[in-house]
What does this fold into?
Amino acid sequence: MRAPGTRLWAIQRLTAAFLGVAVVVHLVTIMLAIRGGLSAAEILERTRGANWWFAFYAAFALCAGLHGAIGLRNIAGEWLGLRGRGVDALWLGIGLLTAAFGIRAAWGLYHA
Amino acid sequence: MPDRRHPTYIAFVIHRVSGLLLALFLPLHFWALGQAITGEAALEGFLRWTDGAIFKFAEWGLVVLLALHLAGGLRVLALEFLGWRARQKDMVAASAGIAIAAAILFLLNVD
Amino acid sequence: MADLKVRIWRGEAAGGAQGGYWADYALPARENQTILDVVTQIQREQQPDLAYRFACRVGMCGSCAMEVNGRARWTCRTHVKRVAAPGETLEIRPLANFPVIRDLATDMTPFFDKWTRARGQFQPKDSPDGGVPDEFSVVPPASKMRQQADAGIECIGCGVCYASCDIVAWNPDYLGPAAMNRAWTLVNDVRDGGKQERLDAVSGDAGCHSCHSTQTCTERCPKNLDPSSAIAGLKRTIFWDTLLGRR
It folds into this structure.
């Protein structure tokens, strides 16, 4: 029998493992992109039609959305006393919505 | 007031607060990048809007938060999955170092 | 001789945390005295109705635990010098996260209830007919499991870790470090037959998955035990056992 907390902890840690790598890649990309100022042309040159970058950012968005939502759930439960199945469903919804927003953005960069 | 000044507690607070701020920022980030859907010009317009000093400072802050959250997270994963117990305090110090390195690298690269 | 200034929290169960008040006392400062010495002196000579607990006075039973200047500690093993510089006031409160009975005496019931909920009791493995097993369990002392169990079995249930844990304060159902430390020692005991139920009991939001590794428990344990590692061990065991279909 697995309590919701167990499953959410596992998702939190599994997404964390992916994000551990993704964030390092992201930070390096940021450091390189800010040189000479940010420009849409420079960003899109990298992402336009690039299958791997799209896949990477889509996965990144999914993991970040879920990871963040579970973290917020913990904070809300512990510091605001917001708990229960309804609240969990709300956070899951927020996580997936955020992820969807991110995947949409990744698609935009792929398709621009 | 309870005494909470030991390193791993401070690391927990930093991890939680950085995570909270990043989680609140994330939808904004996705919205901004989603401008690309309307085309390169829309994205470019948005990026020019963020050229000002205050935005660069905010970007710097976010990079620091991200580095802090990453480093602290790796420390927690090391404890939970690898059982790396002995060097937890060293890892807290290393996390701070990583964040400082990221902060400096950003400042060196930003134009 | 300079006076030692002491503030002691006083209050009733009915009043709750808000109904309490600080009572101020002064007594001669001695070169060598423990917090327990101080509280005892105050109760004997100044405040006969002050309620507090102690037993062995020599750091073996854990009964005298209180919060001193913000930290939960054994008062019989804490020299005044270590917590208060000369001239500094001592602030003594009952242990946090426990219901107060009166003044410095707290109700340990919830603490031990959670111990039970975490299945912190040994469950002997039965032989097929329900009797005592014929074979002795072979437990190599140097085996990893036995070492992990040995690292936590000295716990005497003093409650300092539980009083120091913020998750206990924020989450009323959270089992707490001591109960889970005990569960971990039993998970590592090859003679124990209750592993599955125990791992179920310590899973989830009330169990190990709510620990955020602040490690205050390990910082404060007067016996230098490591509930943090025990809880991390429970997380690992549950994760891999679930993934590999052993649960």
